[in-house]
Design goal:
By secondary structure, this protein is α+β, with helices and mostly antiparallel strands. The chain has a domain of about 60 residues. A four-stranded mixed β-sheet has the order 3-2-1-4. It has a two-stranded antiparallel ribbon with strand order 5-6.
Length: about 90
């Protein structure tokens, strides 16, 4: 019985570690809410994945509408090879 409890705890810990590798947490532009992106299935969800339990992962803030960002692209031409600069405008 003790072994099954220990195995269960270790299994849940390993599942949470794997989930933390698979999921990315993104904040909305105004940083009022977060959503989770599964890098394997490419699906988004607003609720924290069950497998993460009480574990939290680092949030990635989304770019604001006025922010400048760089897009990696094999076919794009830019200042550096394989880079294209994109500027969002309103």
């Amino acid at each position: 019985m003790v072994q099954s409890i220990v195995r269960g705890k270790l299994g849940r810990k390993k599942a949470a570690q794997r989930a933390a590798q698979v999921f990315k947490k993104f904040l909305t532009e105004d940083q009022s809410a977060a959503y989770y992106f599964n890098t394997t299935t490419r699906r988004k969800q607003w609720l924290k994945p069950f497998l993460l339990h009480d574990r939290d992962i680092e949030a990635v803030p989304m770019a604001s509408r006025d922010e400048r960002f760089v897009v990696l692209c094999e076919l794009c031409e830019g200042e550096e090879p394989n880079m294209a600069t994109v500027v969002r405008s309103r």
